[in-house]
Design goal:
By secondary structure, the chain is of the alpha/beta class. Helices cover 38% and strands 15% of the residues. It has two domains: 5-46 and 292-390, Aspartate Aminotransferase, domain 1, CATH 3.90.1150; 49-289, Aspartate Aminotransferase, domain 2. The chain has helices at residues 15-29, 49-61, 78-90, 106-112, 132-139, 183-196, 235-238, 261-272, 278-287, 290-317, 340-351, 377-390, and strands at 36-37, 100-103, 122-127, 143-148, 167-171, 199-203, 228-233, 246-249, 255-256, 259-260, 321-323, 329-333, 353-354, 356-357, 368-372. Bound molecules: pyridoxal-5'-phosphate (PLP).
């Protein structure tokens, strides 16, 4: 018996453990100082009433023989898939319900989608980025190359024709930078993928935060149906981080090596996934209903106001940042050329504010810092006052 020794190639990521340890040490040493967490990566507002009511009704269905449900469909119930397709239509993107796969969240799909690709593919991952893309592909033994982003490209890496990649992860709006691609930039990635016979894995987990005139989906771009898969989540859109539901869209046109990737993914899901529970899917469909949309957007508006409080402070202080407008994340350059851990310590010790050091998301994050809009207005305002007084 041999283990999967690719696990030995994983680089330990102690980021959140180190953040928690340092924060706890500070709290112990300063019991009178209230710590404000601007590093929260989870939603804090509760589910909307429309979603909870639909889930309650879904549970009631399970009480009676006539309406009881057993194993769900692997790809999701048709009415939920149709609700997702209608949602796409609401922002001008045409997707057929049969191309939508309901899942237990984007994290699973971001990693599991690799099952349908060869281990020999070269994977291009933006730096900095959500670490799941990297670790999932290391576990599978794929070679990873990075598309560096920096202040020069406003943290929106663009394709390099001299670099050959087979699988390309794009996250827009990005975690951690909050930067979001415009249509022209996404078209350049689509063209690159088509020219190289590559496939784009487009993570749209934060699309609901987009306010500017930017694409909400890779399928808003001509040619994307021949080269892209979209992964999406209800976690940040509707507060489903604990409930667990997301969806992946694979166009029927998307084929490689004579196989439709849609059919391969169906086969993969049918083998390794037994679907999302009835009650959760009832809640998911409600997200896309009239009341659900209104209520979820109210929560997003609340987070957006917090993002604005933080970005207004950075404008005032003249600190470079990305995100904040189309994303719950604000990615700022550490003042006075500080390293990201140095700035973390400085903020904690002098302002009692916790954020996330950028280097936890990749080499390109060394002098950057992530703040999030998931705390309350009151706490965000208080944090901003404290930061202003020490910078
Ligand atoms: N994709 C990105 C870019 C994320 O930041 C996250 C969560 O933080 C996820 C996917 C995970 O989504 P889910 O909760 O649906 O698994």
């Amino acid at each position: 018996m041999k283990i999967n020794d690719n696990f030995e190639k994983l680089v330990p990521n102690y980021l959140f453990a180190d953040v928690a340890r340092k924060t706890n040490e500070f709290a112990k040493a300063n019991p009178d100082k209230e710590i404000i967490r601007l590093g929260i990566g989870d939603v804090t507002l509760p589910l909307s009433n429309a979603v909870v009511d639909a889930m309650k009704k879904g549970c009631e269905d399970l009480r009676y023989k006539e309406t009881f449900k057993g194993y769900p469909e692997y790809e999701g119930y048709d009415f939920v898939r149709q609700a997702v397709a209608d949602y796409y239509k609401s922002f001008g993107v045409s997707v057929d319900y049969s191309e939508v796969f309901i899942s237990d969240g984007a994290k699973s799909d971001c990693g599991n989608i690799g099952d349908i690709f060869s281990k020999d593919n070269i994977v291009l991952v933006p730096d900095p980025v959500y670490p799941v893309y990297v670790d999932a592909n290391i576990m599978s033994g794929r070679k990873i190359i990075y598309a560096s982003s920096s202040k020069d490209n406003h943290f929106l890496a663009m394709p390099d024709r001299n670099v050959k990649a087979d699988i390309i992860y794009i996250c827009s709006p990005n975690n951690p930078t909050g930067a979001a691609y415009n249509a022209e930039q996404l078209k350049a990635w689509v063209n690159y993928a088509l020219e190289n016979n590559a496939v784009i894995l487009y993570d749209a987990a934060y699309e609901a935060f987009i306010q500017d005139d930017l694409p909400r989906s890779i399928f808003a771009i001509d040619g994307a149906r021949e080269c892209a898969i979209e992964l999406c989540s209800l976690s940040k859109t509707a507060g489903f981080t604990g409930v667990r539901c997301g969806y992946t869209v694979i166009p029927k046109e998307l084929s490689r090596g004579g196989h439709k990737l849609h059919d391969m993914w169906y086969r993969r899901q049918a083998t390794k996934f037994n679907g999302v529970s009835w009650a959760v899917q009832c809640g998911a469909a409600a997200v896309f209903g009239k009341d659900g949309q209104k209520q979820c957007l109210e929560n997003i508006a609340y987070y957006r106001q917090n993002a604005k409080i933080i970005s207004d402070m950075l404008d005032e202080l003249g600190i470079y940042y990305t995100g904040g407008k189309n994303s719950p994340y604000i990615w700022l350059e550490c003042p006075n050329k500080m390293g990201s851990w140095e700035f973390f310590d400085y903020l904690l010790e002098n302002a009692g504010v916790v954020g996330t050091p950028g280097e936890g998301f990749g080499e390109c994050g060394k002098n950057y810092f992530r703040m999030t809009s998931f705390n309350s207005h009151e706490k965000t305002l208080e944090a901003v006052q404290r930061i202003k007084s020490i910078i």
